[in-house]
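Researcher: Here's my situation. A collaborator sent me these components and asked whether they could plausibly form a single complex. I don't have experimental data yet, so a predicted model of the whole assembly would be a useful starting point for our discussion.
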Amino acid sequence: MVAPRPRPGILEITPYVGGKAETEAGGPAVKLSANESAIGPSPKAIEAYRAVAGSLHRYPDGACTKLRAAIGRRFNLDPERIVCGAGSDELIALLVRAYAGPGDEVLHSAHGFLMYRLAALAAGAHPVAAPERELKADVDALLARVSSRTRILFLANPNNPTGSYLSAEELARLRAGLPEDVLLVIDAAYAEFVSAPDYASGLELAREHENVVTTRTFSKLFGLAALRVGWMYGSPRVVDVINRIRGPFNVSQPAQEAAIAALEDTEHQARAKAHNDRWLPWLRERLLALGLRVYPSVGNFLLVEFPREPGRDAAAAEAFLERHGLIPRAMGAYGLPHALRISVGLEHDNHKLVEVLRAFLEGPPHAGAL
Ligand SMILES: *Cc1c(COP(=O)(O)O)cnc(C)c1O
């Protein structure tokens, strides 16, 4: 039978599955599976979103002029060098489409954010994974895998799902070791959560180098995941390229208005950061005290490794948590089947998480399936 055939690579894609929002049994549950903001968005962002309800028949400002100006003010950047997207996911896909195709390689670290691999396959390019050290990107291993076919190197910094990051110095060394015609995309989706003094989001590198782009999002600290708003900052040349291929109205007006209001509400941002600063270390200490392996994280989530014994493993823990109304993220798709990724929640949820995991580890072994 003759039927339309997709381009090579597309059928190799296992569609991305987001964090579950409901347990198998249904009923009320706390979603700790998607690294969303525990405290939610700024009330001013909600207000701004509602305020445009009367103008839904109007096309959005396709250039995101006010939003780019607001981002520029907030981060001290030239708005002309910013492109907004329907989430940073859209920008990741556009960057791959613009710079890589069949025969090209897209490099990422072994447990890097999954979208890089999927975007590469969707464009017909070949994803190449470089090994990590202790679940942290390894600059030398990445550079060693650069070939004449490499077009893009993606680095999530900090990385999801591992929570690890490269220091400003390591990042600069990675950039310096890359050929000038390889695009380095620094995905800093969690930058606003990081306090480490040796961290840099990559904006400075992108300001100075033609081959560096950074991507950011309103989905995490700003708490606007539902609206799909992200942005990238790069050289005028890269910005021009992405503007040629993006959809002309890729960010909706309610999303633009809410994002501007969220940016201006610096108090709410400080609350979100303070919440994470308090509960991320608290959770990590409590989970370590339960005897679990918990990777250091500078994001708003923890990667937690479970014992490899039946009844105490990650699959059993996931089922047990779900039965108690808590939804973690299984990590099989990331090649980490012994781990769960757990987002920082509200105070009550964090306490509940620790108590449920204590019961799981100290009680009789549990069945893996519900
Ligand atoms: C959540 C996340 C994104 C995607 O964010 P959107 O802007 O919602 O598309 C990108 N990169 C990493 C590493 C993430 O964890």
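Model: Some features of this prediction you could bring to your collaborator: The mean pLDDT is 96. The longest strand covers residues 150-156.
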